[in-house]
Amino acid sequence: MGFEKRTIKIIVCVAVLLLVIGAIIGLVLGLVLPYRYVELEVWPRSDEYNREQPLIQFRVNDPGSWHPWYNRINDFLRAYETNVPEEPPRAPCSTLRHDQRVPSPNCERALAVWAPCIADNFYGYRDGTPCVFLRLSHIHYWVPEPYNVSLPLALPPDMPNNIKQMMMQRPAHVYGDYVWVSCGGEFSSDQENVGPLQYIPAGLPPGFPTARLHTADRIPRAARAQPDPLPGPLIALLFENPRRGVLINVECRIWTRDILYDRSSRVGRARFEIYVE
């Protein structure tokens, strides 16, 4: 019996030692390696992009002012160009205007879904109704816990009504889960100046379908450090009538049960400024 007790104590001590060593290694790696959190990216970005105060500024009557933003969006969207878009399309399938491209029935249907946030309309910048594209990144180590009405769990009281309504119309057990997104003026004055906002593609849920996200539960462990074979799905935010000549602060955030909203954090949250003259 004495030998068995000593053996058990040794095993327990070794197990504790291994846990301590693992914790120390994890702490060291956490200090050495950069912290990767779920990020909500905002596009287009200027050449002088500032993560803390990203600014989109242009003059409607000056093509030399808004055309660079049009070019930046084209540069960003070229990774999504295809003649065989998915259904529904994850992004505009062409960065060419109608008079520049060879029409493809599949792509034309996909572009109709993304209108007016397409090259044909200069993504709205020519008319002072700009489109801003959103995309999730740093998700390979993340397993989202989506909100839905298929589970008997309460929804946040501050969740926008349009998201709650879409949950009812497209229940997760039929249409799949979404990482929901909402945007609006960051402060009360911005809420007055931002004007109506529309999520594009119109008619689809304002969010990212989890089935298209390469999160930790959907990819092999060995693939987590590798780039995605396909760029992640997009959402476009259309500013229908932003107040001219006023700097507008805009905040966008994702809604999942595992990410708590914190205005001082960038986890699952993005902010930018828009100034239309």
Ordered list of secondary-structure elements with their pairings:
Blueprint: H1 2-32, E1 39-43, E2 55-58, H2 63-77, H3 105-114, E3 131-137, H4 161-169, H5 172-175, E4 178-185, H6 188-193, E5 197-200, E6 207-209, E7 235-239, E8 248-255, E9 269-276
Parallel strand pairs: 2-9
Antiparallel strand pairs: 1-3, 3-7, 4-6, 4-8, 5-7, 8-9
What does this structure look like?
InterPro entries: Na/K_ATPase_sub_beta (IPR000402), Na/K_ATPase_sub_beta_sf (IPR038702). The structure is a single chain. The chain is an alpha+beta fold. It folds into 2 domains: 1-33; 36-81 and 125-276, Sandwich (Immunoglobulin-like), CATH 2.60.40. The protein has helices at residues 2-32, 63-77, 105-114, 161-169, 172-175, 188-193, and strands at 39-43, 55-58, 131-137, 178-185, 197-200, 207-209, 235-239, 248-255, 269-276. A 5-stranded mixed sheet has the order 2-9-8-4-6. Strands 1-3-7-5 form a 4-stranded antiparallel sheet. Residues 22-35 have low confidence and may be disordered.
